[in-house]
Input
Amino acid sequence: MTKYLNKKQLQDELGVSQSTIQRKLKEFPRIKFGKYKNSRVLFPRPEIDEYIKKNFMVNSVTSERLS
Output
């Protein structure tokens, strides 16, 4: 069974602010319940882990090679 994170849990997991989550919301894999602005949004944990690996791990390895 897939585990889902809410915005607060994602914020704590990534160590970023609530405004960063809001700003990057459309980039994260997510499930939105409803069509309105304040609809509940959940983030599937396995997809978030994969997103982090693709977007952050590669960048850190690339910057280490350039140093």
Summary: The longest strand covers residues 40-44. Residues 45-66 form the longest helix (22 residues). Helices lie at 7-14, 18-23, 45-66.
